[in-house]
Amino acid sequence: MKKDDIRRTVRARKSLLTENEKAEAAQSVFDRLEQMAAFMMADRILMYHSLPDELSTRDFLGKWSGRKHFFLPRVNGVNLDILPYEQTRLHLGAFEIEEPDGNDLTDIADIELIIVPAVAYDRHGNRVGRGKGYYDRMLAGSRATKVGVGYDFQLIDDAIDTDSHDVPVDIVITQSHTVIRRR
Ligand SMILES: Nc1nc2c(c(=O)[nH]1)N(C=O)[C@@H](CNc1ccc(C(=O)N[C@@H](CCC(=O)O)C(=O)O)cc1)CN2
Ligand SMILES: Nc1ncnc2c1ncn2[C@@H]1O[C@H](COP(=O)(O)OP(=O)(O)OP(=O)(O)O)[C@@H](O)[C@H]1O
Which cofactor does it need (predicted)? Predict the structure, then answer.
């Protein structure tokens, strides 16, 4: 399935979600992430600060920020910088995303677990992002466990057409499914 068709279909499905459904899905997905060894064992975790149309990470960030070292991406040209998450030091950055202030840049190689946002995933861990390649470029330099999260309809049955630069995730978690990529 072509990436642009997937982006259109997922956008339409998202627009039908109620606030209640959004909250329930986020709770269920992050409850399961918490119980996974990959999360329990990891201390340095790259999260994302959710946009309104993404599975919300707000509650989860708040719940665990005292016990894990969370990091967030910050757009820097065509690349993503990685900085520590501190609730008091966020500003609205590129694309209206809340991003960390300061210059405490962290090496991607020091991150143990990455929660990777996407428009959709297939059962092989392939992903469709927002089409700017930010995560693909960053993930190319990482050996961390990569976890995709989303609503049920963001896990699609058809295989996604991949390009050579696409980096798959190891695990996809949705409300009803946990998919582990075969290696
Ligand atoms: N929460 C969150 N943070 C993230 C990402 C993400 O997908 N989600 N990113 C993942 O890469 C990076 C930012 N990349 C982004 C790329 C495009 C758009 C976006 O809104 N695109 C519009 C098109 C508008 C335009 O071209 O200016 C769109 O999708 O409709 C947002 C973020 C880093 N931080
Ligand atoms: N490692 C890379 N090096 C150079 N260019 C890249 C790399 N990865 C992706 N790109 C470029 O980024 C653009 C978008 O790629 P693609 O459509 O796969 O993004 P995406 O997976 O939807 O986005 P994202 O990775 O931000 O979630 C393409 O033009 C691609 O050539």
Answer: Mg(2+)
